[in-house]
Amino acid sequence: MRPDLSAMDTLPPSPGSTVAFEKTALDILIATLRQRGYTVVGPTVRDDAIVYDEIGGVTDLPIGYVDEQEAGTYRLRRWEKDTFFAYTVGPYAWKKFLYPPEERLWEVRRENGTLRFTEAPLPTEQYAFIGVRSCELAAIRIQDRIFTGGPYVDPRYQARRERLFILAVNCTRAGNTCFCASVGSGPQAEGPYDIALTELDEVFIAHVGSVLGGQILAEVPHRPATEEERAAAAERVQATARTMRRALDTTDLRDLLFNHQEHPHWEDVATRCLACTNCTLVCPTCFCFSVEDLTDLQGESAWRVRRWDSCFSQAFTYTAGRPARQSIASRYRQWLTHKLAGWVDQFGVLGCVGCGRCITWCPAQIDITEEVARLREQPPQTERSPS
Ligand code: SF4
Ligand code: SF4
After folding, report:
1. 139 and 170 co-located in one domain
2. What's the total number of domains in the chain?
3. 28 and 220 in contact (C-beta within 8 Å)?
4. Which residues of the chain have pLDDT under 70?
5. Is 71 in the pocket of ligand 2 (CB under 6 A)?
6. 260-294: pLDDT as tens digits
């Protein structure tokens, strides 16, 4: 017999505690966030894929869906269970909201013969993210460090990030392109989160990550999780790690990349890579951008926008009158070497969290785990071969 969820505690559950609630009560949690002024964003089905968009309640979630992913392949299908979070990550990363694909930075207007410059107002959005996976939390931690961790803070990212509420979800099913376990970023969610859920058949097991998370959970009928439920939740997450099919061997990875800078393997990848930029755009950690100045047709105002860009684009490498990386081989090498080697020197972590998006959404089926494995089989080469 299932425990009585109406016997709920009256005090908000404190950070570090673990409670259980009926899965349909997630609707109350979402409604509570909306009442508190949050724009609630979560997974939903659009164009035959799981995307992140504003949701109004649990009926907008992809209940009963699972995804099938392989290199260059994504399929969504229904299965026989009414699971809320059995799918894994889709093409969108949460960076779309914290660091939007395009945003205005400032504008200038002609007023009475003078030019008046105005900085774009800081964003006021207050997001609540529903269903953030462990790899995505790791990516948010990385982008926090990039945008707010050094002497130059991005105020636009910071403004959104400071107001963010995160409801994380521990993965109970691994996608075929996932490899988070091998890079230490999953499938168990680590902070920062306000609440982390693990989905069981009848209930969600909720770990409270913050005071605010406890206050939100206080609005939802709940009770302390039993020992059996905690053990079942832990086992589901461990089973996810055990069934992960891909892995990235991180042993001496930084040195491996730096020791193969002039290896002919990069030319081999270039025969397959289309330089389409998909891998960088879907990646939750990639942050390259360019700026562009635009004007109106009357010449009365102009403004500067920041747009996502990609190291795979030749124009992005334009320096001192010419593209610095003209070949696809040099651009693929730049991407992989920055992600897995230069990033470690710059930010102290790998630039890859093992989400597998770049594998799934590469039209040429190029697989970052396979390319690293192939480099491992090759002797080091740091000098260019005489031609
Ligand atoms: S590796 Fe794949 S996704 Fe990335 S630029 Fe090349 S073809 Fe596009
Ligand atoms: S490099 Fe690929 S697997 Fe790694 S975080 Fe980016 S998209 Fe995910």
Report:
1. yes
2. 2
3. yes
4. 1-10, 385-387
5. no
6. 999 999 999 999 999 999 999 999 999 999 999 99
